[in-house]
Amino acid sequence: MDADDALTKTGLEEMFNAAEKFQADVIYCKYNFTSDGVGKNFFKKLKGGVPKNDKQAVTVTEDLAVRADAWIRLQFRVEPWLKLVRRDFLVESGVKFLPVFQDDSIWTLEVLCTAKKVFAVPLSCYIYRLIPDSFSKVQAKSQADIVKNIRRKMERTIRALKHLDEFLGKIDFFQEHANHRYALIANFMTIDLNWLQNECFNLQPHIVQEICQKEFAPYLGEHGALISHLFSRSILLTRELIVAQQKIRSLDH
Known about the structure:
This protein is of the alpha+beta class and 253 residues long. The chain folds into two domains: 6-129, no CATH class; 143-252. Helices cover 55% and strands 13% of the residues. It has ten helices and six strands; from the N terminus they run βαβββαβααβαααααα. The protein has helices at 11-22, 64-72, 87-93, 104-114, 143-169, 172-176, 178-200, 205-215, 217-220, 224-252, and strands at 6-7, 26-35, 46-48, 58-60, 83-85, 118-129. Strands 1, 2, 3, 4, 5 and 6 form a six-stranded mixed sheet that branches. Helix 5 (143-169) packs antiparallel against helix 7 (178-200). It is globular, with a radius of gyration of 21 Å.
């Protein structure tokens, strides 16, 4: 759980009862509440919850090919706080949080690749506190802050990609089906590179290249200059593509 959020009064009981009923490794709550209330108004200003027409618990198939395809189609929410996970499963599987920025997607993917029984249930047990100026919502303004964000996101990408590749490589299914292994890693890389490009978008390409070379030389090895240049070049190409798309839309009008 995030430190400033909350569970409903019966949340743990409801998730535990569902876990017992389905003998599940993971109970996945399909919904959650939000609240921007303060103090006594926190519970009074709940929004969201389960739609009235959703009363069905859905079994997430044990077929890893189907799970991988569903992940790529963004059919799984990655937040750990929507899930109740059997402790023995975590101990036996060895799935742990990687100590990097935004580790929830890596952890959730590993859980889905190793758990046998996963049930998505129509419960709303978690209350996400809406704070406009929270750390995750505040946009960096100074170049120093932007560079700091780039550094931590690059570190996540470099370390997590290596970890994920090694993790999938130990699973028999992904050893036999290289296409699914590649698709998951490509999906992970696409999302991470989009984050990085958004952070780098207002910086000059040579500054992006310098950040790569200065901060991540231990990771990039003898090809650091090449990798740094390719990444900065991709930022420039993305900018050019956006400008071209804007011109095309203006011509359409």
